[in-house]
From TrEMBL, chain A:
The keyword DNA damage does not apply. GO terms for cellular component: plasma membrane. Keywords: Cell membrane, Membrane, Transmembrane, Transmembrane helix. It comes from the Bacteria. The chain crosses the membrane at residues 23-44, 50-72, 79-98, 104-126, 133-151, 184-204, 235-252, 272-297, 309-330. Pfam families: BPD_transp_2. InterPro entries: ABC_transp_permease (IPR001851). Its main location: membrane. It comes from Bifidobacterium simiarum. This is Sugar ABC transporter permease. It is found in: Cell membrane.
Automatic annotation (TrEMBL), chain B:
The lineage of its organism: Bacteria, Bacillati, Actinomycetota, Actinomycetes, Bifidobacteriales. GO terms for molecular function: ATP binding; ATP hydrolysis activity. PANTHER family: CARBOHYDRATE TRANSPORT ATP-BINDING PROTEIN MG119-RELATED, GALACTOFURANOSE TRANSPORTER ATP-BINDING PROTEIN YTFR. It is a peripheral membrane protein. One of its GO terms (cellular component) is plasma membrane. It is found in: Cell membrane. This is Sugar ABC transporter ATP-binding protein. Its main location: membrane. Residues 8-244, 260-505 form the ABC transporter domain. Keywords: ATP-binding, Cell membrane, Membrane, Nucleotide-binding, Repeat, Translocase, Transport. Pfam families: ABC_tran (PF00005). InterPro entries: AAA+_ATPase, ABC_carbohydrate_import_ATPase, ABC_transporter-like_ATP-bd, ABC_transporter-like_CS, P-loop_NTPase.
Automatic annotation (TrEMBL), chain C:
It is found in: Cell membrane. This is Sugar ABC transporter permease. It is a multi-pass membrane protein. It comes from Bifidobacterium simiarum. GO terms for molecular function: transmembrane transporter activity. Keywords: Cell membrane, Membrane, Transmembrane, Transmembrane helix. It comes from the Bacteria.
Length: 340, 509, 357, 307
């Protein structure tokens, strides 16, 4: 019942001519996310628990940030494969510094600067040396991960009283029930993620830089001929995505209190999956930050569902793959139907 | 009388591409309050000159002075900042964005919270209205309007910056007469406000109507700068093509009428062929050796009908007969298999395959009909390429150049060669003469007549009523995605007849 | 920028050689070999190994390893040429390897096992092809899904084990494919080379290559010329799957053991790098199989160099990145046009002075 | 003792007890054997085991799974962690929810006092011990000293470090490691790496290879064989899979140190004890064996090896 009404609504609107067809995939993501929650709740009874919701956000604040970061390059038809590795290198350096007694604010700044440095490098490779974003960021990914391992392959923990951990940690209990599974809590990491989302939204929809990003995604050569600052925008994109990756690193390490060179392997792909599930087209030009956030949530809820359904271990990846596929196919179908 | 000071002076501009000197020491002066035309054949270097002035290409020699200051232009942004606004020959907008945004990109109105969309769209509406496009919704996606309208949007965009220099590279090639008049109206207004306008067009009538001064290029060389009203037409043509105008005798050739004998079967005949939202079910016959012209206003559905007959869009209604036999045409492949070819009006997106060579572009359709694993023998391929390079006078005459590096007109010739190579029984030409210089246009028109004389059925779609009337045996008139008349083109028919037909049916409906 | 298209031809032959992407790849390859030879003086030495009946030496093991890269890079080249990408090749290697090992252990005839593995690769490739061509899904995301799911399929096939077929009696032919020698040269390298040549010949002697490029350059225009883009897209993904299966056989037969997690891991990235080093643009269009083959050998050589230099395993990704960045930067038009650009600037200054005077 | 009656009656009050298993995932060799054994043991013991694997050894997905189990209010959590640090917050939550946690295979390091309380027992063999055994074996094989290589797992995993630490603790001074290279746990890569190392250090007459797992040892053995050095280069590996034991019997490998994955029963027992109100031992060390040729043959012939 619910399905029918929610899916029909946009279609009706579309006939009115006002509705923007580009938003359909994103709306599909919202609907499916809600359906998945409902399904989880009905079958297993734990998905509406405040504790579940809280940890969905707290544990995935980093992924939400990465998804926003990844949205920028993907909107231009590029990609940033280095985000996972940047999380690793900034985390390792950050922990090293903290253990060396550096004050937390300084550490935060240095971590962000390291991220920015890799973004700048990617930007230079892409804009000055005509490397394709895929290859340029693949290179910076190898580079960042390599340097991270050179610095340390140890599992590093934060020292006590570091002035850093409060970013993650338990945060605040908004609703404190006797049972932890009914507590609604939030931590600074989640707030940072929300701020990043708002930042991404404003950047993309209310600044000229943001509109240039969409224009580049539509046609780079047209954007250039229109006299838009394409080159500068490209730098902004890769600088932003890398810096946000560093921010994700801060949130993540603060949350678990330790770091390591192997952190973040494959996260770039999770981020890409989130962005795509959220309705952004991988070839650029169409998409929304809010979609990516939903994509990240959908992506995050896949694992609990496979666990609860008792999917055999060997098949988990297949099932996760198929679920993403179903998503993409569904979106495609909706888009095609819309066009007709 | 005080001599006006030029706002732009380009001196000795030279630009080289691998193997071609596209420009060789060309001079150009633009004066405020004047419309200046760059004249020359296809490939003469007009667009290249414009791109030098807008910072798209870096110049290899020469100097550019804007407002008396020597200027280095390292990109379009520099040009824009120097007060130069440009509408390029190919539409360069972003189809993924809304119409209004395309107009305002980079100049959005800002409020305290970043871009203020309400104001921005209002501003866009204002600029669109200047172009007579007040009925467009600035929030609608650009992809929802036709290329011609996109061209107008691009011009609206150029008006957004307070330009000292406005460059229009062939803005009229896809506009109909009314729209051209509207455009000229605006150009005059802009000119009178003291802006220097650089204008390119292959229509001499338009040149004489709107321009004050001409610079003539030939083969990348500067020929002469003259005042328009002091230069008679044939002298101008002579300077452009380096031959006297008499030699262009074939201009104005008129088709010898092809009488359809009673009982004769058409090559192609469609019955109630249509597609929802694009073209209403339509009947149409094309006989061997007949030229059928499609006439209609912009957006009347001529292209849609052509595409449907080629299977570029799948028809959802009606039947298709080839030489009396029922066939099904649901893809370009099946159309080509049935010897039906279609040359698109959207050369850049649906025509050329930019990174392939001229030779490959010519052969690819023939190859596709033969199948992937039956390559055309080298000898045969050489012959075909040789033949059409010569016959259509493609320049530069090097089949191994990438087609994207050819000038627009020459790309068009290569595309026509591509379709001729498959020896179609029905050839649908959608705006084949758009953006083509007078010489080449005559050549193409001549070619159409020749093909018909050899027995090919031709559908000729053009926004220039003049050539439709001159070349066609019958004229199909479309309006609002519907065929409204089938006119046998005898001596009583003139452009006025067609215009009237369109207007009248509007009243009835 | 369009200006970057403007290569300088005045420099003639030297300019053309310097401007050629392949040149820099060859230079990189030679440089790596020189570095290795400096560190290990016997790097270039070839000896005859009576034990295996073939040549032996660092270069030979390098060629042996390069065989699998050759295979996936070839498939990847065709896919990339259509403006697509195939991220699933590594997983397909694992699936094909798992299939063959599992079948061998189950007592299947070795030739049947080989054929079935190839078929499995072809099928996965075809599924990619169908999703991309018929459903019109984006290649990146489609093959990303297949990369995830493929690994899972490999695990399902072996029930999560690393199936070992080294004890199976009938596995000799498969073992030979990966470890044997033909006229002293590693058999897998010879086989890979032959396959590359066949693919190259088919692509260039028929119209396949041109049609693939055409679809990659402008799909809609290609459709309008009567090419069936769907067929072409399907074809390239199917080929890529099949060749990845061959690579999977090379990788598993080498040790007669599949490792469900490690076999083919990250190799899609290596394949893409090989293709790009070889001069094929990720944006699609013109492709160079020879370039990709060279790229594949370079990848193998980089890995060999890492071992030879004894680079700390922690530092290997960084070294890898450094080499790739250097190669790609050297290929950049900006570098090629450096001298021409300087000449242009000088001429421009001169002419401006003349104007001023 | 006052917990009274048998565990069966206890759990029957609201049906089965649910245990969450935060696992690594089926990655072949040790891991698959280990996790299958645990799953089977808990099933046999009448538990409802909810299994949640991660990907790419990603700790983040494990943390997510752990927190989910806390929210699901399972009766106990088994944690087979990919990393030994970073669990404080999650364990604190478990402590607050009074869910007992049992770490298996890898122990975790906890600073926080509340978090520490959540962990009831650790069950598993010792990686350091295994590394020590390798060093001792090489010392025994080459009392007069020797040169050789170490093949490591991916840089940064704590197993790799622990096995390395064990080796360093016990390695004899006359044993010289020419080079340590990572072969990423992979047979195939180990073969390539070993072939390269054998080429490079030909002049220094390498005599041993310590491969940190069976997979890599098997690959190394093939490279050694191809170089015609079978028997001359002694290979020691850790894990003890059947394939590796077979290679010991065949003479391809010299010595295999078991890293015993079979401790499902012990784990299930510990969980049961805890839920029954007993206090299981805090550190339940699982014994592992070592196999030379004779022992390997015996073990294989007995047909009892599960993996
Ligand atoms: N990027 C390029 N690379 C190589 N050659 C080029 C390039 N752009 C243009 N040319 C060549 O430069 C010459 C001038 O082209 P240009 O586009 O300026 O002609 P045009 O006068 O605008 O012609 P048209 O009327 O057809 O638009 C042509 O010979 C063309 O082939
Ligand atoms: N005035 C208009 N308002 C809205 N949409 C229009 C208008 N004119 C054209 N279009 C769009 O363009 C399409 C018509 O295509 P097109 O303009 O190519 O037809 P045509 O008759 O071939 O004209 P031409 O070839 O001169 O552009 C219509 O489907 C419609 O979507
Ligand atoms: Mg032009
Ligand atoms: Mg049209």
């Amino acid at each position: 019942m619910t399905t029918a009404t929610t899916v029909n609504a946009p279609a009706k609107k579309a006939k009115g001519g006002k509705f923007n067809a580009q938003m359909i995939p994103t709306i599909a993501a919202v609907v499916i996310f809600i359906l998945m929650l409902i399904m989880g709740q009905v079958m297993f009874g734990t998905y509406f628990r405040l504790g579940f919701i809280s940890s969905l956000f707290i544990d995935h604040a980093y992924l939400i940030i990465l998804a926003v970061a990844m949205t920028l390059p993907i909107l231009t038809g590029g990609i940033d494969l280095s985000v996972g590795a940047i999380v690793a290198i900034t985390a390792v350096v950050g922990m090293k510094l903290l253990n060396g007694g550096a004050p937390a604010p300084l550490v935060l700044v240095i971590m962000l600067l390291i991220g920015a440095a890799f973004g700048l490098l990617a930007g230079v490779l892409i804009e000055e040396f005509n490397m394709q974003p895929f290859i340029a960021t693949l290179s910076t990914m190898f580079l960042a991960r390599g340097i991270a391992s050179i610095i340390s392959t140890d599992s590093l923990t934060m020292p006590e009283n570091n002035g850093f951990g409060w970013i993650g940690g338990e945060g605040w209990k908004i609703i404190d029930n006797p049972k932890i599974s009914n507590d609604l809590s939030i931590n600074l990491g989640v707030i940072i993620a929300v701020v990043v989302v708002v930042f991404g939204y404003i950047l993309l929809h209310h600044t000229r830089t943001g509109r240039t990003i969409y224009a580049i995604g539509g046609s780079r050569s047209s954007a250039e001929l229109m006299g838009l600052p394409v080159k500068r925008t490209q730098y902004v994109i890769y600088l932003t995505s890398a810096t946000l990756a560093a921010l994700a690193s801060i949130v993540y390490t603060a949350n678990i209190g330790s770091a390591k060179n192997t952190v973040g392997v494959g996260w770039e792909l999770d981020a890409v999956a989130s962005v795509v599930i959220g309705g952004t087209i991988i070839t650029g030009g169409f998409g929304y930050v809010l979609g990516s956030v939903l994509g990240a949530l959908v992506r995050s809820i896949l694992e609990p569902l496979t666990t609860d359904f008792g999917v055999p271990a060997e098949a988990v990846q297949i099932v996760v793959g198929i679920m993403i596929l179903v998503f993409v196919v569904l979106q495609r179908a909706v888009t095609v139907l819309q066009k007709e | 009388m005080t001599e006006k000071q030029p706002i732009v002076v380009m001196k000795g501009i030279t630009i080289e591409f691998p193997g071609v000197k596209a420009l060789d020491g060309v001079d150009l002066r633009l004066f405020p309050g004047e419309v200046h035309a760059l004249m020359g054949e296809n490939g003469a270097g007009k667009s290249t000159m414009i791109k030098a002035l807008t910072g798209v290409y870096k110049i290899d020699a020469g100097s550019i002075t804007v407002d008396g200051k020597p200027t280095q232009l390292n990109g379009t942004l520099d040009a824009q900042n120097a007060g130069i606004a440009t509408v390029y020959q190919e539409v360069n907008l972003c189809t993924n964005l809304s119409i209004g945004e395309n107009v305002m990109l980079g100049h959005e109105k800002r409020g305290p919270l970043g871009i203020d969309w309400r104001k921005t769209h209002a501003e866009a509406r204002k600029h669109l209205a200047k172009m007579g496009l007040e009925y467009l919704d600035p929030r609608a996606p650009l992809s929802s309007i036709s290329i011609a309208m996109q061209q107008l949007v691009a011009i609206a965009r150029a008006m957004v910056i307070d330009a000292k220099v406005l460059i229009l590279d062939e803005p009229t090639s896809s506009l109909d007469a009314n729209e051209v008049q509207d455009l000229f109206e605006i150009m005059r207004k802009v000119r009178d406000s003291g802006v220097a306008i650089l204008f390119v067009s292959h229509f001499l009538d338009q040149i004489y109507e709107i321009t004050d001064r001409l610079t003539i290029l030939r083969n990348g060389q500067f020929i002469k700068e003259v005042m328009t009203r002091e230069t008679p037409r044939d002298e101008l043509i002579g300077m452009m093509i380096g031959k006297s105008a008499d030699e262009l005798s074939q201009i104005g050739a008129k088709k010898a009428r092809r009488e359809i004998k009673p009982g004769e079967k058409p090559v192609v005949s469609i019955r109630q062929l249509g597609r929802k939202g694009q073209i209403e079910p339509t009947d149409q016959d094309v006989y061997a050796g007949e030229v059928v012209g499609f006439a209609g206003l912009l957006g009347s559905g001529r292209t849609e009908l052509g595409r449907l007959m080629f299977g570029a869009d799948k028809p959802d209604h009606g039947e298709y007969y080839l030489n009396g036999k029922k066939i099904s045409v649901d893809s370009p492949y099946t159309a080509l298999k049935n010897k039906i070819a279609y040359s698109t009006e959207n050369r850049r997106d649906e025509g050329i395959i930019g990174d392939l060579t001229v030779r490959q572009n010519m052969l690819i359709a023939l190859q596709a009909t033969r199948g992937m694993f039956k390559p055309i023998p080298k000898k045969e391929a050489d012959e075909i390429v040789d033949k059409y390079m010569k016959e259509l006078n493609v320049r530069p005459p090097d089949p191994n150049k990438l087609i994207k590096n050819l000038s627009g007109g020459n790309q068009q010739k290569v595309l026509i060669a591509r379709w001729l190579a498959v020896h179609p029984e029905l050839l649908i030409l959608d705006e084949p003469t758009r953006g083509i210089d007078i010489g080449a246009k005559a050549e193409i028109q001549q070619k159409v007549l020749e093909l018909a004389a050899q027995g090919m059925g031709v559908v000729f779609i053009s926004s220039e009523l003049e050539e439709v009337v001159r070349l066609s045996d019958t004229i199909t008139v479309l309006k609002d995605h519907k065929k409204i008349a089938n006119i046998v083109n005898d001596d009583t028919v003139s452009q006025a007849t067609i215009v009237e037909t369109i207007a009248n049916s509007g009243k009835e409906a | 920028m369009a200006a970057s298209d403007k290569k300088d031809e005045k420099n003639g032959l030297v300019g053309r050689i310097l401007g050629n992407n392949l040149t820099w790849s060859v230079v990189a390859l030679i440089a790596l070999i020189i570095i290795c030879t400096i560190v290990d003086h016997s790097f270039l030495k070839l000896t005859w190994n009576t034990n295996t009946g073939g040549l032996a030496g660092p270069l030979i093991t390098m060629l042996q390893e390069s065989a699998r890269y050759l295979m996936i890079a070839t498939g990847m080249t065709l896919v990339i040429s259509t403006a697509g990408i195939d991220l699933s090749v590594g997983s397909v290697m694992a699936v094909a390897g798992a299939t063959s090992m599992q079948l061998l252990v189950g007592g299947t005839n070795v030739w049947v096992a080989i054929l079935v593995s190839l078929l499995v690769g072809l099928i996965i490739g075809s599924v990619n092809g169908l999703l991309v061509s018929v459903l019109g899904l984006q290649p990146f995301i489609t093959t990303l899904i297949m990369m995830l799911a493929g690994r899972g399929v490999a695990k399902v096939i072996t029930s999560g084990e690393n199936t070992d077929a080294s004890q199976v009696a009938g596995g000799e032919p498969l073992r030979w494919i990966a470890n044997g020698f033909i006229l002293g040269i590693p058999a897998n390298f010879v086989i890979a080379l032959v396959i590359v040549l066949i693919v190259g010949a088919v692509a260039r002697k028929t119209a396949m290559g041109m049609m693939i490029e055409s679809v990659g350059i402008n799909q809609e225009a290609s459709r309008m010329t009567g090419i069936k883009p769907r067929k072409i897209l399907f074809l390239v993904y199917a080929i890529s799957g099949l060749l990845a299966a061959v690579a999977g056989l090379f990788a598993t037969a080498s040790v007669m053991r599949v490792d469900v997690v490690k076999t083919g891991q990250d190799l899609e990235m290596y394949a893409i790098l090989a293709v790009v080093i070889g001069g094929t643009s990720l944006l699609g269009g013109k492709f160079s199989l020879a370039g990709s083959a060279l790229g594949a050998v370079i990848i193998a050589m980089i890995r060999k160099t890492i071992i030879t230099l004894g680079i700390d395993s922690a530092a290997t990704p960084a070294f890898f990145a450094a080499v790739v960045i250097i190669i790609c930067v050297m290929q950049a038009p900006k570098i090629h046009n450096l001298s021409a650009e300087m000449k242009r600037k000088r001429a421009l200054r001169a002419s401006q002075k003349a104007v001023a005077a | 003792a006052c917990g009274g009656s048998s565990s069966g009656s206890d759990s029957s009050s609201d049906g089965q007890k649910t245990v969450g298993f935060v696992a690594v995932g089926p990655e072949g060799g040790f891991r698959t054997a280990n996790e299958n054994d645990i799953k089977k043991a808990f099933k046999d013991a009448g538990f409802n085991l909810v299994y949640s694997p991660t990907q790419n050894n990603d700790q983040q997905k494990q943390i997510q799974a752990f927190n989910k189990f806390v929210n699901d209010e399972v009766d106990a959590i088994i944690l087979s962690s990919t990393e030994d640090k970073g669990w404080d917050d999650s364990l604190k939550k478990a402590a607050e929810a009074e869910i007992p946690v049992f770490t298996v295979d890898r122990n975790v390091e906890v600073k926080d006092a509340t978090a520490k309380k959540a962990i009831v027992s650790h069950i598993g063999p010792s990686n350091e011990w295994a590394g020590e055994q390798a060093a001792e074996r090489i010392a025994k094989d080459f009392p007069n000293g020797a040169n050789g290589f170490i093949l490591e797992g991916p840089a940064g995993l704590s197993v790799v470090k622990d096995r390395g630490t064990g080796w360093s603790n016990k390695v004899a001074s006359n044993i010289k490691v020419l080079e340590s290279q990572s072969a990423n746990w992979s047979t195939d890569e180990a073969k390539t790496v070993t072939a390269g190392l054998l080429d490079k250090y030909k002049s220094q007459n390498p005599q041993f290879i310590f491969a940190q797992n069976d997979e890599m040892g098997i690959g190394a053995a093939q490279a050694v064989d191809a170089a015609g050095l079978k028997g001359k280069v002694k290979i020691v590996t850790i894990d003890g899979t059947k394939a590796a034991l077979q290679k010991v019997v065949d003479g391809d490998l010299d010595f295999v140190i078991e890293y015993n994955p079979i401790f499902g029963k012990e784990t299930a027992q510990a969980v049961k004890d805890k839920l029954d109100g007993k206090t299981p031992k805090a550190d339940i060390q699982i014994d592992s064996k070592t196999f030379d040729k004779a022992a390997a043959k015996e073990a294989l012939d007995s047909g009892e090896r599960a993996y």
